[in-house]
Hints:
- With 433 residues, this protein is mainly α.
- It has one domain (64-294, 343-432): CATH 1.10.630.10.
- Helices cover 56% and strands 6% of the residues.
- It is built from 18 helices and six strands.
- It has a three-stranded mixed β-sheet with strand order 1-4-3. The chain has a three-stranded antiparallel β-sheet with strand order 2-6-5.
- The termini are far apart.
Amino acid sequence: MYLLFLLCAIVTALGLITTITLTLFFSRNSYPSTKQHTSPRAIMNLLDPKLSIHNLLSSRFLANQRLLHAFNLSNTFVSPDLRTHHMFVGRMKDLIRAQSRHGHWGAFLHVARQAVESELDHCAKGRETPPSRSFAELVQIVTFKTILIGLLDPDRDMETIDTEDVRVSATLITKLWAMSKMKKSGSVPSAAPSSDDTSTTPIIDELATLNHHLRQLLPDLDKYPNPVDFIIPTWETLWRLVATSLAHVYDQEEYRRSFQELLENPTPERFSTAQVTPRTCWIINETLRLHPPSRHISRSFSIEQHPLRQFLQGLLPKFTRDIFSLDSSPIRSEVAAIKVVHLSTDIWGTDALEFNPKRWGEYTGSANVPTLFAFGYGPLMCVGKNWAPMAAALIVGAILEGVKEGGLEIHGTTVIGGRSDWVGWCVQDRERC
């Protein structure tokens, strides 16, 4: 009789545990799926919800876990820590201010021209090199070298930069970024790959290789304890802005002339208020509209659990909670659909899908300029929002100038890529075409 009673008790307990577990598990997975925001007002409310800066950082931290995993970043983009945020933002502002003490945009253009010359010289003069080279790789390397000397390490000499370090770094960053998008994760993924997870071994190996080459490029341990913290925010976005801008202007004399005039007087005033139309700033703005560096900006929020749920959860054995990940807080994800807004015909007109820089002339002096979200919005807006467009324009101009003077031509297709999809794009010796 005693054994029967004990058996019934065990069965009842197991049934109760199973019932509670399944109830909690399915209730946990019944939260709404990711919410998309597709209007300017909704995006503004998501990115500037009038929360404390700590809560804003936490929402970005939860949304960017894949980047933490892929690159082992330690900057503000993957940290909820307020001190980390202030230190990183302060450091980036210092770098931008330091550029002005080194001659500002004239010196930056000089560096960009050096970078272009070093990469195009062998195409124009070398007989043993291939008759063409990858357009995307050329833009990546030129932009990388320009960022290294023009912003991060102005005392560096261009000749001391090993192009192979740059090429490998650019390739691996692009590859790891793509892998991070494909990798599925839980509500709050671990910050680093598990040592016993063999599926992460290629990521670990490639990240180690990336860090090795970046350390060669930024050897100062005090200034750059983790070089990828600064390369990702400065280079990864900028090279794509340069590439997409070039793709739209390389075969349009009217647009090329705008960049040529900027190079003759590389000042913010010429960039924004030149008499020639379309102004260079219009071309860059239109590129940012059609090809925003981030098509989506995500924010994630921990969902506060009901006290009854917490009580029921506490009744379960720890191993059961661990198996079903019941102790971790469920996450609500929301996404600002930047590209949807940037391509909206209701906002930009019937030609919203077309590249038309002159549309920006309609907004000159107007208070009704549609909002661009290319650099985010609100307190966490990119610190380089006022610096990057001018920097990109000068690199674009330097490449156009170098290609022409080197007897080369850019050849493209109707497909304009982002991080990839630049198949068919190349820079060729004009005499070999």
